[in-house]
Amino acid sequence: MLTLGCKKTNSVPDNSVHGERALPGVWELRSVYGGNSVAGGGNYLPGNGYKWKFTGTAYWLYVNNTVADSGLYKLSSGVNPQTSLETNAMILNDTPFSLYYEIANDTLTIYRGVVAADGTIEKYVRIENP
Q1: C-alpha dihedral sign at 88, 92, 98, 100
Q2: Rounded distance, CA 91 to CA 10, Å?
Q3: What pLDDT, in 10s, does the model give residues 33-64?
Q4: pTM
Q5: What Å distances lie between residue 95 and 2, 13, 17, 73, 106, CA to CA?
Q6: Domains defined for the chain, CATH in brackets
Q7: For 108-124, how does the pLDDT look when each residue is reduced to its tens digit (9 = 90+)?
Q8: What element of type H or E holds 128?
């Protein structure tokens, strides 16, 4: 399920709108657009079983309500290959790859690569605060 970009850059400060204080909580999938996705494409109803849970440094990815991946994450930033804009990023388990993301209101958008190359744009809503 993870198709990731390859650029790691400077850390995002703690007081950033998209920093550590904005990400913690539980986020549930509401839509997927583009390429190859375990969940398939389209819109998703509440209770669909696809979630991210973040604490200050740890994450859990749930697929069908079962933990599919977990570990530690760090925040960073870089040029999102989907938008060509400087974007916040998370680095999972010290890999050399980044998942680019944006948070607007209670919606978390995660960019996995570029849609034209089987990447996806996933939208999640916050269902639980930290």
Answers
A1: negative
A2: 12
A3: 987 655 557 899 999 999 999 999 999 999 99
A4: 0.79
A5: 12, 20, 24, 9, 27
A6: 25-128 (2.40.128)
A7: 999 988 877 778 899 99
A8: strand 120-128
